[in-house]
Amino acid sequence: MTHILSADIGGTTCKLGIFDESLNILEKWEISTNKTGEGILENIYDSFVVHLNRKNLDINSMIGMGIGVPGPIDFENGVVNGAVNLNWTGNIEVRKIMQKYFDGPIYVDNDANVATLGEKFKGAGQNESEVVCMTLGTGVGGGIVANNVLLHGHNGSGAEIGHFLVDQKKRFKCNCGMKGCLETVASATGVVNLVHHYYSNMSLKSSLHDHIMNKNVSAKDVFDAAKNDDEFSQFIIDKVAGYIAYAASVISVMTNPKYIIIGGGVSNAGDILIQYIEKHYKNMTFRPAQDDTHIVVAKLGNDAGIIGAAGLIKTYVIERENK
Ligand SMILES: [Zn+2]
Q: What Gene Ontology molecular-function terms does this entry list (predicted)?
């Protein structure tokens, strides 16, 4: 038994991969997510069999299967409690359904957690045991690896960094129904929230004036303008960075990560974002908890999910057997 099967299920495509025990990719491919409910899982199984047959590999000789899903997870039982992007409602017993096809170990986790595990093993986390990842995209996902394992909490809501209250004024509403979450000020939508909030209340002029007035400014516009010395855009990135740093600071006194990894579309803001986060982080974090902690940009891009889903099998099957 030498190979790991990995699936990262998204709203439009499922990324699939076959890995060796050291999490090197032997093959990766995508299929479209064109069925709902259990049909997606059956499609995944069928595609695995086709690709394994080409390599003369038997699915029952696989070490295990790791699956990333965009929804809240009951990790112990491999159950997803709804996934809006997949049109899954109610509890879907992913592990139990997949066990109809594959009788080896199956681990299921949410997309932010598997991306974190991918970055820990093969990306910016340098295979350290203490790693935090914040994925700043349309929303904000988070994952915390402490003592080499992902934190899940008692009902799977651990490490939901996106819903950490960072804006004490609670100016913007979050998708979760609360106000003031990190997601409302540090996602792509959050960047735009801050642009509109501050532009009408301050005198800094911006090259984005027309976009802002027409309400079609994007986070990318802000990052591009900031790189061209647009002062208002730099001011906005500084605000975003302050909120991210605050979340990173609190996490640092909890789990003392070695690497705090910033991923997702917002991390395309690049060096300026990291520099501003570092500035705020150093000013607000308990000294011993920030010593030798590095704030870095994610390295794996879209592959973080399948590498991390395979990483579930490495963490919970291979490394446990070796202990
Ligand atoms: Zn929220």
A: ATP binding; glucokinase activity
User: How many angstroms is it from 303 CA to the middle of ligand 1?
Assistant: 26
**Rounded-to-integer distance, Cα 95 and Cα 123, Å:** 27
Domain count, the chain: 2
Same domain, 106 and 225: no
- pLDDT of residue 1 exceeding 80, the answer is no
H-helix or E-strand containing 140? strand 140-146
Domain limits for position 161: 126-298
Q: Which helix (H) or strand (E) holds 238?
A: helix 231-255
Max CA pair span of the chain: 67
Q: Give distance in angstroms: CA of 63 to centre of ligand 1.
A: 37
pLDDT > 80? residue 230 = yes
- Report pLDDT digits (tens) over 106-144: 999 999 999 999 999 999 999 999 999 999 998 999 999
Taking the centre of ligand 1 as the mean of its atom positions, its distance from the CA of residue 316, in whole angstroms, is 30
109 CA to centre of ligand 1 in angstroms: 20
Q: Is residue 308 part of a domain?
A: no
Q: Is residue 96 part of a domain?
A: yes
Evaluate whether residue 312 is within a structural domain. no
> From the CA of 161, how far away is ligand 1's center (Å)?
9
